[in-house]
């Protein structure tokens, strides 16, 4: 499932491609992927201009010039492609937004969705999310306040979207490795130095992943050489049996709270 870095990468690239452009046509092949009747969706989206694309947690928000917002969550298996009919992937498209001869295809939205809200409605929809870990105001003091009296494991705490938004299974493992902490360590067991290191690792790993284009292996458009660049730079995730890049011990895979988890027993304490 795409996490914060993947959606931030998409946000950056989509702003370059569609911000300021008018939606000339809308095709809905699967009405379960939207939250209103198709006729209403078409009426409020077609011929509207995309003002900007923003991100909140694992969601993308496409702001329209009529005050409405398209809220996208790709969930498991969802992805997007921007291009012409000629180079469209040979996959089922649930929703298509057209910008003249170029189209934004939403593919694999069996669990994902593209919902239409007003700006006030979208605020309420996302109100339960925790703070953005890369926000300028997300300081170490803010993090310390968040984890005070927390007793959950590092793994389960980091993926809790009400605690902190945007981190999922993959990056929780990468963060724990970078912080040299075992994922099953509990938050209340960390000393002050370990708390600071965990905070710094959250920021470092997410920023590094964004710079590398995240891990998704489908390019967003022809010539997209950035998307998916972080896959080759993963430290532990999906690397069970390989040597740790830091201490050369073997990376192991275990289940923690029903989640597959990768870590190094050699240097994570």
Automatic annotation (TrEMBL):
Its EC number is 3.2.2.23, 4.2.99.18. GO terms for biological process: base-excision repair. Residues 235-269 form the FPG-type domain. Pfam families: Fapy_DNA_glyco, H2TH, zf-FPG_IleRS. It catalyses: 2'-deoxyribonucleotide-(2'-deoxyribose 5'-phosphate)-2'-deoxyribonucleotide-DNA = a 3'-end 2'-deoxyribonucleotide-(2,3-dehydro-2,3-deoxyribose 5'-phosphate)-DNA + a 5'-end 5'-phospho-2'-deoxyribonucleoside-DNA + H(+); Hydrolysis of DNA containing ring-opened 7-methylguanine residues, releasing 2,6-diamino-4-hydroxy-5-(N-methyl)formamidopyrimidine. Residues 2-112 form the Formamidopyrimidine-DNA glycosylase catalytic domain. Its cofactor is Zn(2+). Keywords: DNA damage, DNA repair, DNA-binding, Glycosidase, Hydrolase, Lyase, Membrane, Metal-binding, Multifunctional enzyme, Transmembrane, Transmembrane helix, Zinc, Zinc-finger. InterPro entries: FPG_cat, FPG_N, H2TH_FPG, Ribosomal_uS13-like_H2TH, Znf_DNA_glyclase/AP_lyase, Znf_FPG/IleRS. One of its GO terms (molecular function) is zinc ion binding. The chain crosses the membrane at residues 60-82. PANTHER family: FORMAMIDOPYRIMIDINE-DNA GLYCOSYLASE. Belongs to the FPG family. This is Formamidopyrimidine-DNA glycosylase.
């Amino acid at each position: 499932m795409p996490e914060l870095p993947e959606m931030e990468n998409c946000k950056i690239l989509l702003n370059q491609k569609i911000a300021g452009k008018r939606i000339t046509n809308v095709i809905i092949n699967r009405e379960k992927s939207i939250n209103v009747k198709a006729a209403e969706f078409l009426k409020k989206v077609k011929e509207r201009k995309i003002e900007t694309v923003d991100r909140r947690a694992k969601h993308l928000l496409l702001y329209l010039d009529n005050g409405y917002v398209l809220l996208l969550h790709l969930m498991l298996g969802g992805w997007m492609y921007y291009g012409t009919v000629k180079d469209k992937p040979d996959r089922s498209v649930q929703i298509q937004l057209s910008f003249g001869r170029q189209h934004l295809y939403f593919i694999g939205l069996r669990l994902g969705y593209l919902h239409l809200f007003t700006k006030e409605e979208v605020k309420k929809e996302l109100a339960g999310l925790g703070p953005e870990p890369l926000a300028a105001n997300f300081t170490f003091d803010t993090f310390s306040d968040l984890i005070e009296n927390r007793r959950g494991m590092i793994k389960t705490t980091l993926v809790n979207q009400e605690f902190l938004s945007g981190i999922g299974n993959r990056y929780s493992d990468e963060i724990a490795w970078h912080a040299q902490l075992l994922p099953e360590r509990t938050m209340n067991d960390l000393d002050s130095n370990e708390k600071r290191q965990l905070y710094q690792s959250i920021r470092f790993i997410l920023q590094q992943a964004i710079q590398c284009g995240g891990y998704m292996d489908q390019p967003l458009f022809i010539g997209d050489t950035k998307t998916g660049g972080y896959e080759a730079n993963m430290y532990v995730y999906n690397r069970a049996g390989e040597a740790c890049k830091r201490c050369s011990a073997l990376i192991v895979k275990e289940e923690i709270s029903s989640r597959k988890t990768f870590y190094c027993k050699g240097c994570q304490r």
